[in-house]
């Protein structure tokens, strides 16, 4: 799909400098721009590329002035970065604008769905499922019995949503995610043989939640595993049974959260963090990558290390960690001197 500079400027409320009929059909970095591509310049470090780029159109800030000739058509806007982000969202919406029910696929007779459903081939919709308007379910996806899905939800290819899961409006669940599998519940007898504890709860995902590819969210043993509104989960995260993730909390890839832990609002959790079970993590907590958390955390704490300690304490201690062998040598030398002087 092609757009002219004039059309893009109208969408972004910008001004064209150059050829208003210049056409683009793809997006590119400014250093990789080619004919027919659209790019942007917001970081001054990349200014030199605007004189070299082969991109047909470049979005720039209103106050940007060239000091030598450029071949690219400029669109001047208030904030080039924000404008380009707006175009990315617009482009993505067009790219993902699929509709209709592809075959082969299966929809239970008593399932209900709203307007503009897209159901990709080889997908399955179980009994008593309720799906809202403008929902997209991409190929090879499974929606189990009694699942409820709100409006404007996108479920990408290969997602598995187990029974009784509830998904709010405006959520996105990326490929390969598994929502509502059994929690890790087993009880050993006197001889050490494990028996499975039935997991009869569900998963509740509130509105405006993003769930990354390959992420797994286990159903509760009783009650619900809950992902509160606005939470953002990266790829390959494990969330165990009865966990609660607070509003607008963001969690990076490969983090694991053990059962029944409650995480507060607006937290930032780095990649490969491990959090033990039955803990309470406060609001606005920041946990650095590869930290291990085994205790309750108060509001506004910042942690690093394994086991995690206060962020500033960790940084001070790390100086000593690096010099530990030298410190030991000095202590040995002092010990020898004391013995010799004794």
UniProtKB/TrEMBL annotation:
Catalytic site positions: 241
Residue ranges of coiled coil: none
Record's keyword annotation contains Flavoprotein: no
Broad class of enzyme this protein falls into: transferase
SUPFAM superfamilies: Trimeric LpxA-like enzymes
Keyword Transferase: yes
Keyword terms, alphabetized: Acyltransferase, Lipid A biosynthesis, Lipid biosynthesis, Lipid metabolism, Repeat, Transferase
GO MF annotation list: UDP-3-O-[(3R)-3-hydroxyacyl]-glucosamine N-acyltransferase activity
E.C. designation(s): 2.3.1.191
InterPro entries: Hexapep, LpxD, Trimer_LpxA-like_sf, UDP_GlcNAc_AcTrfase_non-rep
Pfam families, sorted: Hexapep, LpxD
UDP-3-O-[3-hydroxymyristoyl] glucosamine N-acyltransferase non-repeat region domain span: 22-89
Pathway: Bacterial outer membrane biogenesis; LPS lipid A biosynthesis
Catalytic activity: a UDP-3-O-[(3R)-3-hydroxyacyl]-alpha-D-glucosamine + a (3R)-hydroxyacyl-[ACP] = a UDP-2-N,3-O-bis[(3R)-3-hydroxyacyl]-alpha-D-glucosamine + holo-[ACP] + H(+)
Functional description taken from the UniProt entry: Catalyzes the N-acylation of UDP-3-O-acylglucosamine using 3-hydroxyacyl-ACP as the acyl donor. Is involved in the biosynthesis of lipid A, a phosphorylated glycolipid that anchors the lipopolysaccharide to the outer membrane of the cell.
Family of the protein in this entry: Belongs to the transferase hexapeptide repeat family. LpxD subfamily.
Binding partners and assembly: Homotrimer.
PANTHER family reported in the protein's UniProt record: UDP-3-O-ACYLGLUCOSAMINE N-ACYLTRANSFERASE, UDP-3-O-ACYLGLUCOSAMINE N-ACYLTRANSFERASE 1, MITOCHONDRIAL-RELATED
Protein name as catalogued: UDP-3-O-acylglucosamine N-acyltransferase
Species this protein is from: Autumnicola tepida
